[in-house]
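pls ignore typos typing on phone
tetrahydrodeoxyuridine + seq
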Amino acid sequence: MKALIQAAHKAYECAYVPYSQFPVGAAILLEDGSILTGANVENASYGLSMCAERNCLFHAVSAGVEKPSIKAMAIATPQSHRVSPCGACRQVMRELMPLDTPIYLSSKESTETVTNDALLPLGFDKDDL
Ligand code: THU
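k done
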């Protein structure tokens, strides 16, 4: 997991954050041992900005990654306090990764572990349609 967390920290170096100055990196570990990353990308039309977690997962899906092959996700920030994914990202994470996926929330100083399921209790999914 150390390599995954390091990859998430490296990913925020590519964040495009001229408005918030708040870089976030995300990385997922696949069953073949490979790692895919994403960073947040902002826009002058603020609402068009995209979080690191969703960029990472959309990157994975677009590359043909299937849900069961995702084994873990790390989300990193250079701040001293760890970042916690926004509600929109939690909804996307719930749909695109297994519910038991461990999520590592990593700051400059420490890392906290939660499960995907715990991040969004009573989440909306395809069975609710
Ligand atoms: N952000 C993320 O990329 N992930 C999170 O988990 C929280 C927030 C981004 C969105 C925006 O670019 C900046 O951080 C400040 O909200």
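The helical segments are 2-11, 52-62, 87-96, 116-119. The beta strands are 25-30, 35-39, 70-76, 102-106, 111-115. more later
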